[in-house]
Design brief:
Blueprint: H1 3-6, E1 28-34, E2 40-43, E3 49-53, E4 60-68, E5 72-82, H2 112-131, E6 152-160, E7 165-169, H3 189-192, H4 195-204, E8 213-218, E9 223-228, H5 235-248, E10 250-255, E11 263-264, E12 273-276, E13 281-284, H6 295-309, E14 316-320, H7 328-331, E15 337-342, H8 345-360, E16 371-375, H9 383-388, E17 394-397, H10 405-418, E18 450-455, H11 458-470, E19 474-482, E20 492-499
Parallel strand pairs: 3-5, 9-10, 14-15, 14-17, 15-16, 17-18
Antiparallel strand pairs: 1-2, 1-4, 2-3, 4-5, 6-7, 6-8, 8-9, 10-11, 12-13, 18-20, 19-20
Length: 502
Amino acid sequence: MSDQNDKISPEAPYEDMPVGNPDLPEGWLEVVSMDMEAKGIARKPDGKVVFIDGALPTELVTVNVHRKKNNWEAGTLMHLNRESSQRVTPGCPHAGLHEGACGGCKMQHMHVAAQVAVKQRVLEDNLWHLGKVKPETVMRPIEGPTWGYRYRARLSVRYVIKKGKVLVGFHERKSRYIADMETCKVLPPHVDAMLLPMRALIASMDARETCPQIEVACGDHVTALVLRHLEPLSEADKQRLREFAAAHHIQWWLQPKGPDTVHRMEEGGTQLSYALPDFGITMPFKPTDFTQVNPHINRVLVTKALRLLDAKKHERVIDWFCGLGNFTLPIATMAREVLGIEGSDALVQRSHENYAANNATRSEADKLAPTEFVGRNLFNMTPALLMADGNADKWLVDPPREGAFALSKALADIHQIRIGAKQTGVATEEQPDLLPPLPEGQENWKFPQRIVYVSCNPATLARDAGLLVHQAGYRCVLAGVVNMFPHTAHVESMAVFERIGD
């Protein structure tokens, strides 16, 4: 059970739920909602909240409780006494609550349209209960293929001596053991078809006991497999890898130690890349670079985000947490000038390379806008550092799960200082809330008029939205979900903020 449920408070959305129906047969519970981990939520007649693996809203269930706290319990669906109209048969034989079930997909038992509706509710609940923010408009969900979409995956590998076989796949539900998977329907069909051959390959190798992981990275034209190996590979094993690569049209990358040791086993061949055709951009990447798991949704997401950003030819735009340039380069087809800021020096270098490579293929009349990429720790932002990056008409923010708290707070502090709600000076015990004075020339610094915030965690989005709306002088004009990970409880979303006044 996560910390989320350990912190149930009067402000939590569960407190809005009706108390359980005392007229139901003893032991029966009515499920009325779902939490961020795709557990059904019910309340007992005494008010205690119960989180139930495998249960869906509207169902009447009996629960096998395996954990109890003062104000909540957790358990697993034992009997289904009334079934939801949204319950479906999982598309994968390894999904479910049975022993040895894969822990990769938690929502396959729910119709995909209902999955999206639940995620939308999670987003709206988080925005309101954590940030006290209600978007003026709820965006229509961004959706795409629900099977075969997962172009990035980290597969665990283990040679099980007692069973005399190799397992390749995701971990079992709530377990350190690897699920005995023969198929995975969220992987692309050609990768799904390789699962059993991968098991046979590792079983045939001299290093079968010292290869703990295979990372999958699919581009538009080639698939890379990164083999983690804890001891040097024999020539015979390398030959086995070459034969597998030829048979399955993949390229091998080897990782003898940390991520910085990843390298191609054989030079040459097709480069990993994905296209953003709406902008004429091609993004080369390495298999360990961060790229979106779902390329189908990523293409739609980039187009939608940039349509909402609406950068003009006279505007300067900052792309915060820019990665390898997934949003930055498309913005550079629209704006006057772009600044991409990223915490990883390796990705900053990759962004420079991608920008140069794309610009080299464009005509003189269609060159990308002047774009600079900078490496910086964005979890250590201050008003002075923020102002040092200069004025920008618009921002694109795409942080990791931790969100963009320091960035949002710096923006809020500048606003609060300017309206006189916060004072500057040297903080003391008597006046701990004093903020450092704004830098010289600060009166020429202007707030971005629009912020498009792409989030992979609705809780941190809601926290940051609360700062932007209640302390930084913005209104939330739009928010909605992006179903980047169908059949999982992962909620990707997007929100748009516009400056009030000035």
